[in-house]
């Protein structure tokens, strides 16, 4: 891997990456799920300035796509010399979730750099990585010789709301706009014991709306009416009692062995019968362990009734259901019918938008390069894990393109701390984590396409 080009900027590569991160935070591409929120075009302009020299000298090809006004995504491509080599995509989203400034100790969009930490919404999820990806692509673009394979920065809008105005839209509307054969994205670098965790799989989402029907009536004469609201309460009670079975996939054992030192506790966690009784001993990681060992069902939205004096004939219960690999829509519907029991006849199950769980193989040259890069940078072994939530990486996996999380956070970034910081007040990242991630990213890129 050639040296980064110091003439691009007066700053060294790490400082330049940190400055880029700060500018991306200040771009404040807040995505609240509305079509015209986000306005990622602001972050795209920041990146276009960052790449100005590479663009002017023709070292990169760039394309901007706009799914809706202001919902821009930028693709930067460094062309490789060998068409048979891998085409590596570095996928970073530009949008961030909203922040309530009153609950922050600093301006969430001020990008203050204090005591070696950059403060701001999106610093951890995932602007630090987007900045690192951009920095590495620029270094490769400005190097004296071209890389072997193509290197692409995919800086996309709307990840936080499912990619309808970002990667999902791009893959649907412009399937020929870019070609990648493998990809890296967010969710990685957290410490699990002595290991560094990298996501190679994600749970799926099978949202459901339960439509509960009753018999309406005037509220002043309730006799003979059957309130859908009361029925919905009964449905919720039954939901609270349902316990989807424990399914320990192939990533469970590596997770337990990486994170748990006590052999007796390990053994209990590896036994589906004793697992739940051991969860309280896991502290801050219990929620994650619970989530990745089963399908979960969380009632989130409840609606019934329109007027104070009318007994409602309909209630809606929205369920956020997260699935494991191999779980089908039929499985979920059967589980719900079983749970409803004798109420099933009066309840319609509607499907909300969702996606299947996805996994990339642990036995893959890109993943091997990620493991080697992290170990070479930091000395830590890598443990592959499954994410309980979803990210844009699934969209590549669904196309058969292997996609992995990435990152190398500094000491002290336990998985728990990572979970606590993202989407939370006072989100911030230390410069050391940016530095480690930059170094590991260079190594991966050199190994795959350098
Ligand atoms: Zn994210």
Account of the protein in words:
The protein has 450 residues and is an alpha+beta fold. It folds into two domains: 6-194 and 359-449, Aminopeptidase, CATH 3.40.630; 202-355, 2-Layer Sandwich (Alpha-Beta Plaits), CATH 3.30.70. The chain is 34% helix and 23% strand. The chain has helices spanning 13-27, 41-50, 52-56, 123-142, 167-173, 228-241, 252-259, 263-269, 275-278, 286-292, 329-340, 365-378, 393-398, 415-421, 431-449, and strands at 61-66, 72-78, 88-93, 113-114, 117-119, 151-156, 182-185, 188-192, 195-202, 204-213, 217-218, 296-304, 310-311, 314-323, 347-355, 358-359, 382-387, 403-405, 428-430. The termini are close together. Bound molecules: zinc ion. Zinc ion is lined by residues 93, 125-126, 159, 186, 391.
Characteristics:
single chain, 450 residues, alpha+beta, Aminopeptidase, Alpha-Beta Plaits, 6-stranded mixed beta sheet, 4-stranded mixed beta sheet, 34% helix, disordered N terminus, binds zinc ion
């Amino acid at each position: 891997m050639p040296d980064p080009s110091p003439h691009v900027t007066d700053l060294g590569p790490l400082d330049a990456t940190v400055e880029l991160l700060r500018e991306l935070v200040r771009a404040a591409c807040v995505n609240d799920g509305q079509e015209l929120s986000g306005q990622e075009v602001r972050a795209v302009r920041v990146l276009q300035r960052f790449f100005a020299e590479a663009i002017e000298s023709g070292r990169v090809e760039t394309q901007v796509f706009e799914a809706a006004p202001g919902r821009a995504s930028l693709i930067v491509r460094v062309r490789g010399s060998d068409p048979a080599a891998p085409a590596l995509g570095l996928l970073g989203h530009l949008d961030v979730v909203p922040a309530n400034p009153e609950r922050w100790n600093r301006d969430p969009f001020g990008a203050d750099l204090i005591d070696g930490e950059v403060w701001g919404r999106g610093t951890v999820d995932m602007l630090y990585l987007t900045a690192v990806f951009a920095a590495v692509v620029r270094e490769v673009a400005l190097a004296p010789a071209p890389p072997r394979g193509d290197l692409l920065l995919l800086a996309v809008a709307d990840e936080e709301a499912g990619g309808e105005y970002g990667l999902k839209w791009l893959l649907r509307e412009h399937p020929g706009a870019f070609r990648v054969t493998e990809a890296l994205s967010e969710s990685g670098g957290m410490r699990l014991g002595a290991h560094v965790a990298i996501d190679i799989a994600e749970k799926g989402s099978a949202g459901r709306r339960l439509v509960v029907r009753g018999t309406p009536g005037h509220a002043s004469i309730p006799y003979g009416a059957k309130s859908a609201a009361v029925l919905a309460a009964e449905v919720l009670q039954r939901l609270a009692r349902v316990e989807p079975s424990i399914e320990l996939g192939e990533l469970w054992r590596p997770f337990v062995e990486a994170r748990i030192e006590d052999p007796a506790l390990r053994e209990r966690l590896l036994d589906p019968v004793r697992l739940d009784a051991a969860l309280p001993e896991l502290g801050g990681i219990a929620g994650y362990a619970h989530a990745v060992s089963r399908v979960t069902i969380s009632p989130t939205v409840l609606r019934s009734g329109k007027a104070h004096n009318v007994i409602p004939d309909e209630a809606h219960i929205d369920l956020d259901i997260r699935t494991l690999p191999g779980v089908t829509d039929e499985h979920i519907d059967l589980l719900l019918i079983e749970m409803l029991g004798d109420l099933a006849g009066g309840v319609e199950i509607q499907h909300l938008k969702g996606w299947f769980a996805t996994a990339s193989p642990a036995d893959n040259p890109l993943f091997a390069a990620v493991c080697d890069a992290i170990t070479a940078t930091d000395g830590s072994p890598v443990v592959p894990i499954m994410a309980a939530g979803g990210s844009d990486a699934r969209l590549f996996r669904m196309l058969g393109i292997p996609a992995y999380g990435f990152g190398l956070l500094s000491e002290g970034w336990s998985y728990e701390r990572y979970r606590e910081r993202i989407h939370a007040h006072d989100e911030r990242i230390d410069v050391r984590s940016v530095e480690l991630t930059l170094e590991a990213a260079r190594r991966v890129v050199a190994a795959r396409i350098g």
